[in-house]
Design brief:
The chain is an alpha/beta fold. The protein has a single domain, classed as TIM Barrel, CATH 3.20.20. 35% of the residues lie in helices and 28% in strands. It has eleven helices and 14 strands. The strands form two sheets. The protein has an eight-stranded parallel barrel, surrounded by five helices. Strand 5, helix 4 and strand 6 form a beta-alpha-beta unit. The longest helix has 11 residues. The two termini are 13 Å apart. The relative contact order is 0.15.
Amino acid sequence: MNTIKRFRVIPCLLLKGPGLYKTVKFKDPKYVGDPINAVRIFNEKEVDELIFLDIEASKNKTPINLNMLRNIASECFMPLCYGGGIRSLQDIEALLKLGVEKVALNSVTYENPNLVRDACQRFGGSTIVASIDYRKNLFGSYLCYSHSNSKNQNMKLVDRAKQMVDWGVGEILLNNIDHDGLMTGFDLSSIRSITSVVDVPVIACGGAGSLADLRAAVHDAGASAVAAGSFFVFVGKHRAVLITYPSQTNLREQVYR
């Protein structure tokens, strides 16, 4: 009997202030609604997991909106990951106490590498996700960026992923800046370059526009999970806002198979 391999299909939602937004190539954020309303819809659709990323907190050095996240976590019936503005072990502890299961660290990992190691040791690597934003330069190399694409870290993607695993993280979230919001498919070669050299789960993000794209990231590039934003909040060529998620039947027939 054939066994259908199931993997996580995760909406990745962007916070800006109290609202939910979507970007294209990390620019031009478009308001798409209220985060609590989105969580309630995704609850009904029985999604695997949710990722919320605050796109301003690290860049503008604003504090984490714990009150909003408390409300989100209280409504959320599925595992919840949050990233943005995290600067200390105390921040991580506060998020976990609210009901957040995993925290995604990005910009702070360049500013304070010891925080990654200390967080993995204190809370366990399975709680810490290394969020890596990257894009291809003119010479064809994938380089890492931070602070919502405002700082080039001049570090190659593969080197960064290996480093984060060495520091103890239990999962990597790959977000391709140049594919963000385009819905034209994942950059499979960059995903494959990471899945072939690390032994932790890799979440592919950036570019999903169809169920076939989700399938390709796992079956062709080796990702353990897929995340998407536009694919779950827009519909049609005019990108009308509609919070959606594939049915379990469609996932079984077109993605997991």
